Every structure is written in structure tokens, then in C-alpha cells.
Amino acid sequence: MKKIVIFDMDGTLIDSKKDITISVNYVRKTNHNLPPLSEEFIVDAINKEVRNLPKLFYNTEIYEEKDRILFEKHYKEQCIEHPYLYEGVQEMLERLHVKGVKLSVATNAPTQFALTMLEHLHVADLFDMIVGADKVQASKPHPDMIHKILNFYNYDAKKDKAWMVGDNSKDIKSAHNAGIEAIFAAWGFSAHGTHSVVVKDPKEIVDIVLQ
């Protein structure tokens, strides 16, 4: 029996809010001459289940190409300035890896940023796949990313076990939509989850998966 754990990245494995905020505010100032937003506002906006991020961030109805290009150019350098792994995450990943658990990442961030950040934090090698929104037709809560990863492992629902670990409703719904179990991580961007399985410390994931 294979055991597979798929992790969200931002707000689950790593705290990246400072650099996201810096890059969003850079675009706001450069392209729109708008005042800066707080980290709290930006994190709350990102985690909303239904939202129009271009409107919230740049006061535009759609994500304009000039904003996307400038954000990605700036964030490519900015994204490794301040991110850090949440306490206990590296130990949790290493313990699962040693026990033969298959580990992957499914993030709504572009794959290039995820790879850059996880390599910078010296954990990229623990994952078999790192899948960003650019690698699938639809991002979470659509199950495309999870299906892509499960297919890579030749997952068999009748004999294998798989979990999605994330910090917001999109992660939980993507797990439900893919027919796998979900674990809500309450140490990251969202402290409160309504899901039935809520963990407050990464070591709890080890206990759940290895039991």
C-alpha cells in the first residue's frame, strides 16, 4: 500500500506573506500609483473562497497583462528574501520521507516560484512532484493538480491512501473533489478551519499518516 501526502505550499509549508506583499505593493505603486496594502489584507484576500484579486490588489476588473508581467518579474527575485518553513515542517517532511511516504506539492502559485522557494529552503528534494497552477487546466479547488499527482504515483483508491494538507477551503475542497482525505493546517495563513480533521502542529500529520 502506498501512502501519498500532497501539500499546499504558501501558508502550509512556508510563510511567504512578506514577499508576496512586497511584490503586490510594488505593482500597485509602479503601475497604479496606489498606496500599500497590509500583509493581513493580502493574506485574507488570497484565502477568500470567492474573490476578485485584481480588483482587491490593483483596482482593475481583470488581471491585466502589465500587472502579471511586472509581478512575476519582481517576485522572481523577491520570493527568496524572507520565506521560512513553519516550525516543525522540515522534521515532519523528513520523518515521512524516511518512512517511505510519497510527498508532493500542489500549489496555486506558478511552478517556477514554488521550485525556487522550496530549493532555497532546502526541502525540494523531499518531493517527487511540485505542481503549480500553470501545469494544469484549472487550479484548486478543482482536482486537476491532485489527479495529476495521483496518476504519477499510479494511485489505486482501493488499496492506497492519500491526503491533501492545506490551510484554506480551496485545499480541502480540492481533496474532496479528488476523492481523497483532507487535513486542515491551522498554523499558517488561516488559524481556523471548519474541516473535520484540523491539526495545529506538523507532527500531528506524522501521527495521522503513519498510524
From TrEMBL:
GO terms for biological process: DNA repair. Keywords: Hydrolase. Gene3D superfamilies: HAD superfamily/HAD-like, Putative phosphatase, domain 2. The keyword Hydrolase applies. It is an enzyme of class 3 (hydrolase). Pathway: Organic acid metabolism; glycolate biosynthesis; glycolate from 2-phosphoglycolate: step 1/1. Its EC number is 3.1.3.18. It catalyses: 2-phosphoglycolate + H2O = glycolate + phosphate. One of its GO terms (cellular component) is cytosol. GO terms for molecular function: phosphoglycolate phosphatase activity. Transmembrane segments: none annotated. Belongs to the HAD-like hydrolase superfamily. CbbY/CbbZ/Gph/YieH family. PANTHER family: PHOSPHOGLYCOLATE PHOSPHATASE (PTHR43434). NCBIfam families: HAD-SF-IA-v1 (TIGR01549), HAD-SF-IA-v3 (TIGR01509). This is phosphoglycolate phosphatase. It comes from Sulfurimonas sediminis.
